[in-house]
Write a structure and sequence with these properties.
The chain has helices at residues 16-24, 49-52, 62-68, 79-96, 121-136, 148-158, 171-175, 188-196, 202-207, 210-217, 219-228, 258-278, 310-324, 355-371, 379-382; strands at 8-13, 33-36, 44-47, 73-75, 100-104, 107-111, 140-145, 163-165, 244-255, 281-292, 297-307, 331-339, 342-343. With 385 residues, it is an alpha+beta fold.
Length: 385
């Protein structure tokens, strides 16, 4: 049932934000460090292993984190710097890997299938990891196995700053004793449901009849059962910084109504930002486009720290429009595009924003997913409907 031919590497930068901060300030090494909003109303974005020993975790209210560890060093965070180091690591991988996928700011998959014919895949993986450590200065953990699921779990078991190889014959012995919580993609509700059924280890989950898992959890039950049995056919999707999401509007009548166009940008950005969050994506580049009545087309772009927040994207989109629209001619078309996409949620850059802001985005997205993307909008956008 498991392909004999696949060799998939999973790479994950350890406590990435903290590690970058420690590069900048070595005095932070060995100390409990928290990255996130610095006020009591902020949330934890990332924390060091030393901080985790106090029970601190990501997305935790900063006030609670302070109470758990009053000696923790709290840093607001610098998404621009983290994005820069993420690109450094991605460039190292891109120079050497035959096929790789960047799934988040600090995580990559590499398909090295067939490399054993020329060079040992594990040896190659080890050398790549050491190259990343040497050239970036960042700790990184690695897992190598037959598919994405097992490789990712192996990486988790190799942390911090370690490596683990799980050959085909070792997959079940490796997975069996682990907690079901180690399975990628298992949510809190599903975990609690399985625990209420007396299922705590991957071994127990793997031995449950597939029909029962499907009856209890539907299609997701089948996926979980396969993962518990070390089965995952998900391919490594080639990485491309050109991957993008965007929208354009062509006016029925060419216009010079700047007030209307500004409000239209709000609606457009709101929509594509929601589409990104729904797909758990973040963007690192914003492009604004204008086509005049004479069909002259102009674009302007700006590179950003990874984000999927409306308020961040709106501010930049409006600034770019003001820079681009200098000719005061009738406009035929306007567009917005987000590119340089990676996997990740908007919680990742909650350095300035409060817990209330995070909860607001979560609540709005929940309503939009249920009732449609136009169910909740900024007031100015309603006039465009």
């Amino acid at each position: 049932m498991i392909s004999l031919n696949k060799s998939i590497i999973h790479l994950d930068l350890d406590t990435f934000f903290v590690s970058v901060e420690r590069l900048m300030n070595p005095k932070l090494i060995g100390k409990p460090v928290i990255i996130g909003g610095t006020s009591d109303r902020g949330v934890v974005s990332s924390c060091s292993y030393e901080a985790r020993q106090f029970g601190i975790s990501s997305a935790m209210p900063m006030k609670m984190a302070r109470n758990l560890c009053s000696d923790a060093i709290i840093i607001r965070g610098d998404m621009e710097m983290y994005s820069k180091y993420s690109k450094v690591v991605t460039d190292i991988i891109a120079d050497r890997a035959p096929l790789f996928e960047k799934v988040s700011i600090d995580e990559h998959y590499i398909d090295v299938t067939g490399m054993d014919r020329f060079y040992g895949t594990y040896k190659w993986s080890q050398e790549l990891r050491q190259t990343i450590i040497r050239e970036s200065g960042l700790p990184i953990s690695m897992g190598l196995s037959q598919n994405k699921t097992v490789s990712k779990i192996a990486t988790g078991e190799a942390k911090p700053n370690g490596e683990k190889y799980i050959p085909l014959e070792g997959i079940r012995p490796f997975l069996n004793p682990l907690s079901i919580g180690k399975i990628p993609g298992i949510g809190h509700k599903t975990y609690q449901l399985l625990r209420s059924m007396g299922i705590s280890t991957i071994s127990t989950l793997a031995d449950i009849p597939l029909e029962m898992m499907e009856k209890v959890l539907g299609k997701s039950g089948i996926v979980l059962w396969k993962k518990a049995n070390g089965i995952d056919s998900t391919p490594v999707i080639p990485h491309s910084e050109r991957q993008s999401i965007g929208t354009e509007t062509t006016f029925e009548t060419d216009t010079i109504d700047v007030h209307y166009i500004r409000n239209l940008f709000i609606s457009m950005v709101e929509n594509i930002a929601f589409q990104m969050r729904k797909k758990q994506k973040m963007a690192s580049c914003l492009t604004v486009k204008i086509r005049y009545s004479n069909f002259d087309t102009h674009t302007i772009q700006r590179h950003l720290p990874y984000t999927s927040f409306d308020h961040v994207l709106l501010k930049n989109a409006q600034e770019l429009f003001e820079k681009l629209y200098q000719r005061r001619m009738l406009i035929r078309l306007v567009g917005v595009k987000l590119s340089g996409l990676v996997g990740g949620t908007h919680q990742i850059n909650m350095f300035d924003d409060t817990e209330e802001m995070l909860n607001l985005y979560s609540a709005v997205d929940k309503i939009k997913k249920r009732y449609g993307s136009h169910a909740v909008q900024k007031a100015v956008a309603l006039n465009l409907m």
